[in-house]
């Protein structure tokens, strides 16, 4: 293997172990054993467990943030932006289950500190900006955009954490129900909500 290939192999092995056992339950010895290398090879590439963990977490955060940013970047009706944001998180959970497990294991959604919480705050800031514009247009108090942004992002993130384990109903149904609650409110829930935009 080239140095680059070996580094990627070690990251893949470590990512799987961190998802399965968490940071504390994973050792350099186990990473080296699963990668079929000696411990010094792992130290040479990453300096230790903290180093490889930091790279894994950083990559996962960028992957999720990129998906969310893309979902919220286009100018569209607020309901479609909500659909896209919910879909982006659920797509990430489905396509990067190990990554999501790593992010929420040591920094759960309900926590006020940690990498995942800071990521959610970054996403909430983007949502706050979008809501602030919409609130101004419709006569709502723009100062409340921050509160609503935190509520929406928290609702989607907690639901995503729950869906990670149960995987029922299907992803698009989960997104449709999230949008149903967020868009219509409890007093106007649709009986069979659907997404206006598929994908």
TrEMBL record:
Positions of the DNA-binding region: 27-46
Superkingdom per UniProt: Bacteria
Native species: Actinokineospora xionganensis
Keywords (A to Z) from UniProt: DNA-binding
Chain ranges of the HTH tetR-type domain: 4-64
A Pfam short name: TetR_C_32
UniProt-listed PROSITE patterns: HTH_TETR_1 (PS01081), HTH_TETR_2 (PS50977)
InterPro entries to which the protein is assigned, alphabetical: DNA-bd_HTH_TetR-type_CS (IPR023772), Homeodomain-like_sf (IPR009057), HTH-type_Tx_Regulator (IPR050624), HTH_TetR (IPR001647), Tet_transcr_reg_TetR-rel_C_sf (IPR036271), TetR_C_32 (IPR045823)
Protein's name in the database: TetR/AcrR family transcriptional regulator
């Amino acid at each position: 293997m080239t140095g680059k290939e070996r580094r990627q192999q070690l990251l893949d092995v470590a990512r799987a172990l961190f998802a399965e056992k968490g940071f504390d339950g994973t050792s350099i010895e186990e990473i080296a054993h699963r990668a079929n290398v000696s411990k010094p090879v792992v130290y040479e590439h990453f300096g230790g467990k903290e180093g490889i963990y930091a790279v894994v977490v950083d990559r996962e955060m960028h992957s999720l943030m990129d998906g969310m940013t893309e979902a919220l970047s286009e100018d569209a009706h607020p309901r479609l932006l909500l659909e896209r944001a919910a879909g982006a998180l659920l797509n990430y959970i489905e396509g990067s289950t190990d990554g999501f497990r790593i992010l929420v294991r040591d920094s759960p959604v309900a926590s006020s500190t940690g990498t995942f919480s800071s990521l959610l705050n970054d996403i909430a800031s983007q949502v706050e900006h979008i809501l602030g514009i919409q609130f101004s247009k419709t006569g709502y108090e723009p100062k409340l955009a921050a509160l609503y942004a935190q509520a929406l992002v928290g609702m989607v993130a907690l639901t995503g954490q729950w869906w990670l384990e149960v995987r029922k109903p299907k992803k698009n149904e989960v997104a449709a129900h999230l949008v149903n609650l967020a868009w219509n409110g409890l007093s106007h829930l649709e009986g069979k909500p659907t997404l206006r935009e598929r994908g």
